[in-house]
Amino acid sequence: MAERILIVEDEINIATPVKTYLERAGFDVAHALTGTAALQMLEETPPNLVVLDLNLPDIDGLEVCRRIRALSQVPIIMVTARDDDIDKIVGLEVGADDYLTKPFNVRELVARVKAILRRAPVTARQVGGILTHGAVSIDRSRHEVRVADELIQLAPKEFDLLWALLEERGHVLTRDQLLENVWGYSFAGDTRTVDVHVRQLRRKLGDACPIVTVWGVGYKVGDDASAA
Question: What pTM was computed for the model?
């Protein structure tokens, strides 16, 4: 069965070519003109990925993203007409997995959809394994992260990023390496998404967060003492 993509876009001249290219790539594509319609479609027929415009006629795209995250961990690619770092960072902080700025190359969007979906099944396949570091425990089969006995809710890419760093503990991973390992592609030099997700992990894990910044290089998981 083809994977289902939900496009949330009120501009038909953008939605039509995106839908066409995704269908040519073998996806089953649904289209919603408004945030309200998108949320209803999400509940009725859950998609495998959402392409979400930031500027919608009824509900702000950021609010739609928040509401989707309250219902599902489906991957979200956010699209914005403004080349504004604040919009991109806020979008990632409320749960988007990726972003594109209009105008964009439709082929690039299709490539990003494929890259994200290649990694999404890792959780669905329930690959076994538990990694621990200090008070932090990450269980891949259950897709759970705990600090001591407290369950911590992480977005899919936050979970994948934490796993990637813990799996390579002691080694410094550059932002480009993390983009390749976790997201599956390069942002052509724009690595801010890694920093935003690390910031989110530190906020959610608190003092137990094991991620150490190696200035000018990237991130690593050090020993327990340095991780605090």
Answer: 0.67
